[in-house]
Design a protein that fits this description.
Largest sheet: 8 strands, antiparallel
Shape: flat
Distance between the termini: 52 Å
Radius of gyration: 29 Å
Number of helices: 7
Number of strands: 24
Length: 450
């Protein structure tokens, strides 16, 4: 029994015996097993002349504190459809790092490490994960070194996310106010003398009242969601996905193919992804309606390939586009020119469709300190869908995976070129990139468990 001197009264205070608490799963721990374990512990303590100790068991299961988990993707009728994508686990995750919380990029794909560890990995560009101000040398995770954490959402992206939710709630309010004004006008028309007009007005009023009810119910969801996002996701520690494991130096003109090597791998805490994790599926987002997206997948009536808009906008990615298929596309554009119709989901521009027509560009990169020094590299070139469709990518989209509309993985977006806007997007072919990854993660593969 402990005795502690009370400084105020000068008396000794008795605090009772020492108690060892042991947490167990009550479903699988019997009273007999707990008793036998307690006797062994007491015998070990007695052997070391430690007495007057109680052993107590209680129901307790260890859980990792991963902070808030990502939310599952929602269906097309959910009131959160337009706002939920930045915190669901589908491909197109907006990422940043703790070291540079306002720099932003995109995660490409999930990979399973395989082997005895079989960690869940995330792939992106090195220039997204590591500052260009650091030496261009290998970056490797070390157990005793400070963790270089990858974050979900940069500071800018988080603020933009919050503002977009607020805008959604405001738009819902505007719609409700408009429908209510229409209802009052229709009521006046119903009271008019023309029977046919009154009948039409009544039918329209009933429909408008139903729309108001639906809109008012929908208004509550983004407002509640906003409070949750602000409470759970504003803190950087709650947005940590995992540590950077390895980034090779950025190299141009690598190997016989002369491609760019600009990639990095980080570990992802599987528990952080929640129950909505479905592996390598791309969120097609809400930039385009399903009919608009589908029509763009068939630029001509004589297209001989199939495409069905995926459930809940989640396009499964299976297999890779081979070097042969890149150079000899098996689709065509509106001018009947051979191309691959490709899609990406990125931090800056969301979901966009483009054309890969078999062009590989020679990219020349100059050194900032001396414009007379440069290196060249080959890149897979992606054009915008059409002249008036807008750009395929912008800064902040680096790291996005590019796949064709059949779900075949093509490449990882590394940059672009243009004057006033990006008119050509560049990517490193994934068939080649996976070979480079396997040199450091030999058992890595795309077949992640979920």
């Amino acid at each position: 029994m402990f005795e502690v001197d009370d400084e105020d009264s000068g008396e000794e205070t008795h605090m009772g015996p020492v108690t060892i608490w042991i947490g167990v799963s009550l479903d699988i721990t019997s009273a007999t097993a707990a008793h036998d374990a307690a006797q062994e512990i007491l015998a070990l303590l007695s052997k070391n002349e430690i007495v007057d100790v109680d052993i107590d068991f209680r129901g307790s299961i260890y859980r990792r504190h991963v902070g808030p988990v990502l939310v599952p993707p929602v269906n097309d009728l959910d009131p959160l459809l337009e706002v939920v994508s930045p915190i669901n686990p589908a491909l197109g995750l907006y990422i940043s790092t703790r070291v540079r919380p306002n720099a932003q990029g995109t995660m490409a794909v999930y990979l399973a490490e395989g082997g005895k560890d079989n960690r869940l990995l995330g792939l992106s560009c090195r220039h997204v994960l590591i500052s260009p101000e650091e030496p261009n040398t290998p970056v490797t995770w070390r157990p005793n070194a400070p963790s270089r954490d990858v974050l979900l959402l940069s500071g800018c992206a988080f603020n933009k996310f919050v503002d977009f939710i607020k805008l959604k709630a405001r738009k819902d309010g505007i719609i409700v106010e408009y429908w209510n004004r229409l209802i009052e006008r229709l009521k006046r028309q119903e009271a008019g003398g023309d029977t046919a007009d009154a009948t039409r007005a009544m039918a329209s009023r009933i429909k408008a009242e139903r729309l108001v009810t639906e809109a008012e119910e929908a208004m509550e969801a983004p407002q509640t969601f906003l409070k949750t996002v602000d409470r759970k996701w504003r803190t950087i520690n709650n947005r940590v996905l995992g540590p950077i494991l390895y980034c090779p130096p950025i190299s141009l003109g690598v190997g016989n193919e002369r491609f760019t090597e600009d990639w990095g791998m980080f570990q992802i805490d599987r528990a952080k992804l929640g129950t909505g994790f479905q592996g390598n599926v791309m969120d097609l987002g809400t930039n385009m309606t399903l009919d608009e997206f589908t029509c763009k997948c068939f630029p001509r009536d004589d297209a001989n390939w199939s495409f069905t808009y995926p459930n809940d906008r989640l396009l499964p990615l299976v297999g890779t586009i081979t070097d042969q298929q890149m150079h000899h596309p098996d689709m065509f554009d509106s001018n009947h020119e051979p191309c691959l119709l490709v899609v990406k989901s990125g931090n800056s521009t969301g979901t966009t469709i483009g054309r890969a027509n078999g062009v590989f560009s020679v990219v020349r990169e100059y050194y900032a300190h001396d414009m007379n020094i440069n290196q060249t590299s080959m890149e897979w070139g992606i054009f915008s869908y059409s002249e008036g469709s807008g750009v395929f990518s912008e800064p902040g989209d680096s790291g996005s995976i590019i796949a064709d509309i059949k779900g075949r993985i093509g490449g990882m977006l590394t940059g672009g070129s243009g004057t006033d806007k990006v008119d050509m997007t560049y990517a490193t072919p994934f068939w080649w990139l996976l070979e480079r990854i396997k040199a450091n993660f030999p058992d890595a593969h795309l077949g992640v468990d979920f």
